[in-house]
Amino acid sequence: MNDRPSRPSVLFVCVHNAGRSQMAAAFLEHLAGDRVDVRSAGSAPAATVNPAVVDAMREIGIDISAGTPKLLTAQAVHASDVVITIRCGDACPVFPGKRYLDWQIDDPAGQGIDAIRMIRDAIEALVRTLISEIAPG
Q1: Which of 10, 11, 13, 14 is catalytic?
Q2: Measured distance CA(64)–CA(56) in Å, rounded
Q3: Tell me, what's the pLDDT at 89?
Q4: Residue 88 catalytic?
Q5: Beta pairing, strands 9-14 & 82-85
Q6: Is 37 a catalytic residue?
Q7: Which of 20, 29, 105, 123 is the most buried (most CB within 10 A)?
Q8: What is the pLDDT of residues 98-123, one digit of tens each?
Q9: 3 pLDDT above the threshold of 70
Q10: Which entry of 32, 36, 77, 88 is annotated as an active-site residue?
């Protein structure tokens, strides 16, 4: 019998799953380790992760170059305890008993590296707050 409580699961959703949600998922995996299950998806996923986002994350020692955008599914939402949408409108299905948050973070698409760094740092701060709420350690 397993006495350890199950780990909280978090799903990050943005439109293309190529920038913000990829960064958020990478930060949560990096900072929380195995205390949290992490997923990310997009309502209209891009073909690849934004290369400038990959570069910005690499600057701080987090490699997301192997990430691939994934299509948002109802199953992914259903399997998550916390669903964080990042300016993706009403594309995310809503299920009872889930915690929903909406982060108003600018899209890094087409932005220069300085703007992407600011977006990255804002996401890191939000993820750190999230960890303190759902998986303090």
Answers
A1: 14
A2: 10
A3: 66
A4: yes
A5: parallel
A6: no
A7: 20
A8: 999 999 999 999 999 999 999 999 99
A9: no
A10: 88
Taking the alpha carbons at both ends of the chain, their separation in whole angstroms is 23
- The answer to whether residue 9 scores a pLDDT higher than 50 is yes
The single residue of 92, 119, 123, 127 carrying the catalytic annotation is 92
Residue with tokens 């192997």: 66
CB contact set of 107 (below 8 Å; sequence gap of 6+): 14, 15, 19, 20, 87
Q: Which residues are CB-neighbours of 24 under 8 A, at least 6 positions away?
A: 12, 40, 84, 86, 103, 123, 126, 127
Report the alpha-carbon distance of residue 104 to residue 69 in Å, rounded: 20
User: What does the pLDDT read at residue 99?
Assistant: 93
Residues 3 and 116: their CA atoms lie apart, in Å, by 42
Backbone Cα Rg of the chain: 14
Q: What is the pTM of this model?
A: 0.93
User: Cβ(105)–Cβ(86) under 8 Å?
Assistant: yes
Active site residue 75: no
